[in-house]
Structure formats: structure tokens, C-alpha cells
Design a protein that fits this description.
Elements: E1 5-6, E2 13-15, E3 20-24, E4 27-31, E5 38-40, E6 47-49, E7 52-57, E8 62-69, E9 78-86, E10 89-98, E11 101-110, E12 112-113, E13 116-119, E14 127-135, E15 138-145, E16 151-157, E17 165-171, E18 179-189
Antiparallel strand pairs: 1-18, 2-7, 3-4, 4-18, 5-6, 7-17, 8-14, 8-18, 9-10, 9-17, 10-11, 11-12, 11-13, 14-15, 15-16
Biased composition (Basic and acidic residues): 193-205
Region (Disordered): 186-205
Protein name: DUF1349 domain-containing protein
Length: 205
């Protein structure tokens, strides 16, 4: 199996540059702007497109992984991986504070946004990796905590001919001062199967 390549922080381009960033060893510390978010319309009736995302090309048949530390306190504190085509077509997946707990989830936006979550309280204070794998007309999103097993988060549509970018994102919809530590970003070949064990592939190593 080919191993992914580490992506240098300077290789990405900011969508909505955050107020502060600092390279710390191999990691990147990002301070989110207060009341920043990515969302379109559904249930809340507003459009927000001012969260922070450090993006680079996400071509077909590739995968991008983002690793970050979950250290959240306030409602809707969030970080993870974003896939972006344009302002009305994007996916964000990661961990977000909701109902007093860290929640693993994804928002898929095609004109309007949806949202799905599952509680992961045991992930607080630990390193989490989110992986997006693009093949055919779909992107498969998985996540894991440290060296734990991969969990399927979402299978979502993404047009084969779409020009997309991907990389780490964070938002702070309810407060000032959220700081997120991203430890690394990698890019490599896409998974060859939806489920581990199919066609001989196993992404759980």
C-alpha cells in the first residue's frame, strides 16, 4: 500500500485567513475568529461562510488526512477537514461541541446544509484524524482517535469533474479565543473500497 505524503503548511492557501497562526514544531496552532462558521440556510435561516480553511488541490483518486487535537469547551467549537468546490458546494467533517459533548460529524452542503453527529466524549483531549477519499462520484469520510480503528462517518456525492480543494478547517461560532492544534496533513492515493477488507484493502493500520 502506498503511504501518504506529508503536506507542508505553506503549501495550502487560506480561505478566510484566521487572526493568528503559529507553527509550533511540526504542528500549526490556529486561533479562530470569534463567531466564525460554515453553514447554509437549513433550520437556522442564515448563511455563514467565514470559517477558516487551509486548502490545496483535492484531485480525483486521492485522499487527504487531517490530524488535530480535540480541546473544545464552548458550544459549536469545531475543527476537522473541509472539502470545497465553491460557496454552495462543500463538506466539513470533524469534531464539534454540541449538547455538552464532543460530537463526531459531518455537514454536506449542496445549496443548503445538512448535519449528522455522534457523541465521542472519550476523544476529548486526544488526537483525531479525519480522512477523505475521493473516487468516482463520491467522497468517503472516515475518522479515528489516535491509533484506534477507522470509523465510517459519511459517504457523500462529489462530481467526478468537480475542481475541489481540501484541508484543515476550524470555526468558533459562539465565542472568541478558540485555538486549535493541527499536527499534520497528508495526501496520498484514494481508498479502493468503501469498507475495510474489500478488495484486499484495510485502512486500519
Amino acid at each position: 500500500m502506498d503511504r501518504p505524503d506529508t503536506v507542508a503548511w505553506q503549501d495550502g492557501t487560506w480561505l478566510n485567513e484566521p487572526p493568528r497562526t503559529r507553527v509550533d514544531g511540526d504542528g500549526l496552532l490556529v486561533t479562530a475568529r470569534g463567531h466564525s462558521d460554515f453553514w447554509r440556510t437549513t433550520a437556522y435561516g442564515f448563511v455563514r461562510d467565514d470559517g477558516h480553511a487551509l486548502l490545496r488541490a483535492f484531485p480525483p483518486d486521492s485522499a487527504t488526512e487531517v490530524t488535530f487535537v480535540v480541546d473544545f469547551e464552548a458550544l459549536y467549537d469545531q475543527a476537522g477537514l473541509m472539502i470545497r468546490v465553491d460557496a454552495e458546494t462543500w463538506i466539513k467533517a470533524g469534531v464539534e461541541m454540541s449538547d455538552g459533548l464532543p460530537q463526531l460529524g459531518a455537514v454536506v452542503t449542496r445549496g443548503v446544509s445538512d448535519w449528522s453527529v455522534a457523541p465521542v466524549p472519550e476523544w476529548q483531549g486526544r488526537a483525531v484524524t479525519v480522512r477523505a477519499s475521493r473516487t468516482g462520484d463520491a467522497v468517503t469520510i472516515r475518522a479515528r482517535c489516535e491509533d484506534g480503528p477507522w470509523r465510517l462517518v459519511r459517504l457523500a456525492p462529489l462530481a467526478p469533474d468537480a475542481t475541489a480543494t481540501a484541508g484543515p478547517f476550524c470555526c468558533s461560532p459562539e465565542r472568541d479565543g478558540l485555538q486549535v492544534r493541527f499536527t499534520h496533513v497528508t495526501q496520498g492515493p484514494a481508498d479502493t473500497a468503501l469498507h475495510e477488507g474489500e478488495d484486499g484493502e484495510d485502512r486500519g493500520d
